[in-house]
Design a protein that fits this description.
The complex is a heterodimer of chains A (227) and B (374).
Chain A lengths: L6 E7 L10 E5 L4 E5 L6 H9 L6 E6 L7 E4 L11 H5 L12 H15 L14 H15 L3 E5 L7 H16 L3 E6 L2 H4 L5 E6 L2 E6 H11 L4
Parallel strand pairs in A: 3-7, 3-8, 5-6, 6-7
Antiparallel strand pairs in A: 1-2, 1-4, 8-9
Chain B lengths: L5 H30 L8 H17 L1 H6 L10 H4 L3 H38 L11 H15 L10 H22 L5 H24 L3 H12 L7 H20 L1 H17 L4 H23 L4 H14 L3 H25 L8 H20 L4
The chains are: A alpha/beta (227), B mainly alpha (374).
Chain lengths: 227, 374
């Protein structure tokens, strides 16, 4: 298992033209939950977008071992929902869920499961533009869940949610993790995520420090809380 | 709960009706085109009767046609084997006009599909199948075959078309190599295509500098884009390849929707890898383009106009836009070619020229209409 990481970064230099950080060499195994923490504007989102293939790396390599269509789930900060379409149709947009070569019954099943997991079943036919910010975030999460990805990249997907909602969404994502998917989430508020994370990538002074959850507990007095 | 909204369903129905109407009109126009020509003009009813009669004869009595030398590989001579006017009529329709009409339809389908695919995945409405440089590669190959006499194909009758095809494949190969770099932006593809166009253009210009008058006119003829060259074998080949490539395009239509709806970010969030899908679609459209251009010469306008016309008629959903563009492209090519060969018959105006002359104003009119300008 150790031999086959789902994501391996080797000497990866991230940034747009100008490097944002020291070279990063890290590996992510199946079933890991990783929280990327650090103050805003430091490059957490850029790292996530580099992993998603949206920003070309300046140097080094970023290898994803995702072998099926829709195997990479990405929840961007701006969510990328279709405002005029219904919640169910938005959830049905993901690869492997779309009315394409997917069987209609399978598609229906996946959408219903995902909506149930985030608690939006009764809003299914509502257009997305009528939902609140937190509900939209849950729709985006459901869309990614329905894809059944092997690696989920989530950019502040809990930030606009209150405590209860945040833990509800995390509870919806965690079953996938126990089935072997990995989760990498960017948050600026450690409170939401620290109890779920198995590792923390602490981004500070242009370096990434790879910490286990216990190490972070000890570490947090120096840089924790709002960071 | 999960059904599409009523509006969507209603739209879907009217779009299907529109596409059905367009294809019906295309079929009618092709029957009309089969009856028109420089030798004799038949009305559509007579043409249909002739075609049906010949099909019945072909199915039931192949001997009738064999007697006319239809299956002979050698050049056919009307005076020797076919004496009556009906046979002559059938011969003209089946041997001369049918390959041409079929090639017009196929060319329209392939080029318009390629244009729609490329406009979608490069996110640029100005892109046409000629943008990637595939056609310039083809024209370089043709110029080499015509002027230098250098051809990579050994079959004499395929010297020009084969060479054009091989050289356009070289451009396809360059595009594949380019796509190997992670996250090549859409602009890079377009700029590399323009660079290839310039390089190939420079070489062709140099070659024409040393060419004789006869070679020059042959090259000019090639670059006009004409449907006169393909025979039934070529048509069968092109048809097979086009209709194997088209379902692949349809398979990617949803990914293309994701890409054109919200750019790369949106595509990734719906589980589409933008760089790989962009590379695959470009390779597919380059193949479609080179397949047609090698045999017909430069026909560019249909690949630009047909997708835009269909977009005005059908909307932006690529699941419907791709077939609609294909039908629209076939229709445009067919009309342009038929007018081109009947307007000043027996002089045939190449389809490439006719397309721009007729299609251009229609295209502008549709664009201005849809923008609400009067």
């Amino acid at each position: 298992m150790v031999a086959n990481p789902i994501l391996s970064l080797s000497n990866l230099v991230i940034g747009y033209n100008e490097p944002l950080a020291e070279p990063i060499s890290l590996e992510v195994q199946n079933g890991e939950v990783i929280a990327i923490l650090g103050i805003s504007g430091i490059g957490k989102t850029t790292l996530l977008r580099t992993i998603a293939g949206l920003v070309p790396p300046i140097e080094g390599s970023c290898r994803l071992r995702v072998d099926k269509k829709g195997g990479l789930g990405y929840i961007p900060q701006n969510l990328g929902l279709v405002r005029h379409a219904s919640v169910a149709n938005n959830v049905g947009l993901g690869a492997g869920v779309r009315l394409e070569w997917t069987m209609f019954s399978e598609r229906r099943k996946r959408i219903e499961e995902a909506l149930k997991a985030v608690g939006l079943t009764e809003k299914a036919s509502e257009p997305v533009r009528r939902l609140s910010g937190g509900q939209k975030r849950r729709v985006a999460t459901a869309r990614t869940l329905a894809q059944r990805p092997q690696l989920i990249l989530a950019d502040e997907f809990l930030s606009e949610l209150d405590e209860g909602n945040a833990s509800a969404v995390m509870e919806a994502v965690l079953p996938l993790v126990t089935q072997g998917s990995s989760l990498i989430m960017v948050e600026h508020n450690p409170k939401h995520v620290i109890q779920y994370a198995s590792r923390v990538w602490w981004f500070h002074d242009e370096t990434f420090t790879d910490l286990s959850a216990e190490e972070w507990e000890k570490f947090s007095p120096t840089g924790g809380e709002e960071a | 709960m999960l059904s599409l909204s009523a509006l969507h369903q209603k739209q879907g129905k009217s779009q299907l009706v529109k596409m059905g109407l367009m294809s019906a009109v295309t079929v009618l126009v092709s029957i009309f085109a089969l009856g028109q020509g420089s030798s004799s003009n038949l009305d559509m009813w007579t043409t249909t009767q002739t075609i049906l009669r010949d099909i019945r004869a072909f199915v039931g009595l192949p001997d009738t046609l064999r007697a006319c030398g239809y299956f002979d590989g050698v050049a056919w001579n009307a005076g020797q084997t076919c004496t009556n006017a009906e046979d002559l009529q059938s011969q003209i329709i089946w041997r001369l006009r049918l390959p041409r009409v079929l090639m017009a339809i196929l060319g329209g389908v392939a080029l318009a599909t390629a244009g729609a695919l490329m406009q979608g995945c490069l996110g640029n409405p100005l892109v046409s199948p000629l943008t990637l440089g595939v056609a310039s590669g083809a024209s370089l190959g043709a110029a080499l075959a015509i002027i230098v006499g250098f051809s990579l194909t050994t079959v004499g009758s395929l010297a020009i078309a084969g060479n054009a095809f091989v050289f356009s494949l070289i451009v396809v190969f360059i595009i594949i190599q380019l796509g190997r770099y992670r996250s090549v932006s859409a602009e890079s593809y377009i700029l590399v295509g323009i660079a290839i166009t310039f390089i190939a253009g420079a070489i062709v210009s140099t070659l024409t500098y040393f060419a004789t008058d006869a070679q020059l006119s042959q090259l000019a003829h090639w670059s006009f884009g004409s449907l006169a060259r393909p025979n039934m074998v070529v048509v069968a080949l092109v048809a097979t390849s086009t209709f194997t490539l088209f379902p692949t395009a349809m398979k990617w239509s949803w990914d293309l929707n994701a890409l054109s709806m919200g750019g790369d970010d949106f595509a990734v969030s719906t589980g589409v890898d933008p760089s790989s899908i962009r590379r695959n679609i470009l390779i597919l459209s380059a193949l479609l383009t080179s397949l047609i251009i090698a045999f017909t010469g430069m026909i560019g306008f249909v690949g630009l106009a047909a997708p835009h016309m269909s977009r005005i008629l059908i909307g932006n959903d690529y699941r419907k836009l791709l077939p609609a563009s294909a039908i629209c492209g076939a229709f445009l090519m067919l009309v342009a070619d038929t007018i081109g060969r009947t307007l000043f018959a027996p002089v045939v105006i190449p389809v490439g020229i006719m397309l721009a002359v007729i299609g251009g104003p229609v295209f502008m009119y549709l664009l201005l209409q849809s923008k609400g300008v009067r």
